[in-house]
Amino acid sequence: MKKTILAAAIVAAAPAVAQTENTQKDLLPSLETIVVVSSRQPEAMRQVATSVSVLDDTQIKARGFTALADVLRTMPSVSVTNTGGMGKPTSIRVRGESGYRTMVRVDGVDVTDPTGTQASAQLQHIMSADVGKVELLRGPQGLMYGADAGGVLNIDTLTSADETQVTLSAEGGSFDSQRYNASVGGGSEVVDYFVGASYAETEGFNSVIEDEKAPPELLQNQDDDGYENTTLHGRVGWNVTDALRLEAVARDTEATNEFDHCSWPYVNDCVGDFEQTNTRVSARYQTERFSNELAYSNTDVARQNLAAGAISYDTEGELEKLEWLGSAKLSEAHTIAYGLEQREDTVLEMSRDQWGAYAEYQGHYGEGLYVTAGMRHDDSDDFGDYDTYRVSGAYVLDVASGSVKFKSSYGTGFRAPSLFEIDYNRQQDNPDLAPLTPEESEGWDAGVEYYAHSGLHLELVYFDQSIEREIDWDGGYVQSAGESTSEGVEVIADFPVADWLVVNANYTYTDAKTAEDAVRARQPENMANLGFTFIPVSALQASVNLRTAEGTVDRVGEPIGSYQVLDASIRYALSPALTFYVRGENLTDEDYVEVPNYRTAGASGYAGVEVTF
């Protein structure tokens, strides 16, 4: 009987050994990796002088997290704060800048929620399912986007396979969590498509840490605060000719979140309903020398909060963009990229129009010198004209053991006050609340990278950036008289220890100060990730990641304790069609806080299965 079981196990495992789930190469950066986030057109990393981080679908799956924000925690210079578990308000800080300073795009659509206080992306509602690639441009060098000081987060969903492929997955685990995903994609030389549907829910945990001296009404209803998310996504492309491609993207997210402390007087029976629909249609005509794309995108958001069953907050908004993106290849070494954008933000009865135009020269000199110089002009019907700039340079020197890349970039940006900020001040009878004006940011960085033939990658970057007239809250929205600053160092190392072991590590030191020279709230001074990926056979992958943060303060300057969180996952491909995985989060059950008065999850475990055919 034992021999029969053993023989069956060997037969079952044999296809897994023969097939390739992941390889060492998938986990290591390369100079030839193609990115689009820097200049809105495909280019190899060897040409890119800005600071860009990349995660592909292999790395995203290895981490295994349900929420994409948890995946982003492992990237350099990225800190994430969450107020009580999956689906709760989540903010991403890049190089010390607040989350609303980083533009987030999904398949070319700006997913900014115009109804938000500072008009940022609702990152907590973006799940990791069907995400194929994440590119993060760090710093105020997002010339082509009109981006602010944080940078640009570009998210691409999975691309279609040449043949029809169906993927199904299911997961369950702690906090009565469940996740299901189904997708189908395929295509030919003429038509390609991808459709995905995902559902995630959790009972969660009581998100708020109640003060024992709080009023009795706040100490009641100490229940779990759950969350539910349904996301549908589709993309179809039609290659009308060799030069002309038409494409359409549609994405819809509906989420329900339970939380505490809403309305006045406070109650803990709170429910938030969120729906966001994103659409984009585009036509691209591309020849050997010219590329031009005309695109229209729309982000529509509706949010409603219920306090003890009664509506306490209700709003809706829309962000529309009409964009013309182009490039002209003057020669093999010289290219001009250009674009024109018309944007309209609408929240209930309020609206704002803004036009933008940019042009950038991109040159390649000699064997390894790459330079850019560009300018953008924006015209807002509320605030008039603003000009921003970017210059960058990279030099790649090939040596016997690999390549060394020197890089530097300088860029400026601006952020117009959100419609909410303007409207709030307008409604207050307070002469101290002066009319708001746009914030202006600038920053530069310089670094060196080493790519060895062995796979070793080392990177060292220094950054220094500032924001003039930063808008903050003080009984209303007010602007500082000076400059807030953020400077620091990023150290990144990726290397193969052996054929079966890869190490990915990063450390970021950030000195972020307000205009009053106080430490900025919720930004760790020191952050680090140390990850190990084990691949004993091609079908088996185990990943372990330790992240740490220290030197954080709250809004009144009180220290927030440092912490170390250990996560791990194991994936095993029983066959090319069937993969099992398990994942553990906060394995040491670290008791820590990211936002004062809000809990984080303790030790938890999850298991799932994926079927592909």
From TrEMBL:
Gene Ontology molecular function, alphabetical: siderophore uptake transmembrane transporter activity
Any Pfam family: Plug
Span of the signal peptide: 1-18
GO biological process, one term: siderophore transmembrane transport
Protein name: TonB-dependent receptor
Membrane topology summary: Multi-pass membrane protein
TonB-dependent receptor plug domain sequence ranges: 46-151
GO cellular component: cell outer membrane
Subcellular location as annotated: Cell outer membrane
